[in-house]
Amino acid sequence: MNFTDALNRNLEDIKRPPNLPVGHYVWQINRVPEQEAFTSRNTGDTFDRLTFQVVCVEPMDDVDADELEEYGNVQGTPNRKSFLFTQNEEEAVKFEQSMNNLKRFLGHCGLEEGNVEAAINDCVGKQFVGELGHRPDPNDPEVIYAEIGRTAKV
How far apart are CA 24 and CA 59, in angstroms? Predict the structure, then answer.
């Protein structure tokens, strides 16, 4: 399959592929997380966003076998796990909640000691269990996002 051959396809024949089925998966962090500034379109609030790029290692027993068969090979399927840290100094509690969520996630990856920067730099290759759910795009309900929610140790 290559893009040059795909140029001959009819647009009406192109269908959105299925999302990864909901359930728990083992995920692996495949690169050092990226940090960027983020502004909410809805509120205008500003955040620092820390995003972990991950790939699927394997599904757990609660993932529907028929949906997995329809999806195909899940190994290597990319996704991400992000954390938002408010930049509003008046919302220190929300900032600390995000820090605690990050600490718990890093612990689920086996990183329980040292400072945050060292743990972030050491996370590549670490694995965790993540619960995958589906969320519709608020602006286009036909678009469904596959997102990692709760996490746990492998």
Answer: 6
How many Cα atoms are found within 13 Å in the side-chain-facing hemisphere of 149? 11
The per-residue pLDDT for range 25-58, each reduced to its tens digit, is: 999 999 999 999 999 888 889 999 999 999 999 9
Inter-CA distances, 89 with 35, 49, 84, 85, 95, Å? 19, 16, 14, 11, 9
pTM of the entire predicted model: 0.89
* Residue 54, both tokens: 């991950």
**Cα separation, 92 vs 83, whole angstroms:** 15
User: Above 80 in pLDDT, residue 1?
Assistant: no
d(CA 95, CA 123): 22
The mean predicted confidence, pLDDT, of the chain is 95
Among residues 33, 23, 35, 80, the alpha carbon closest in space to that of 55 is found at 80
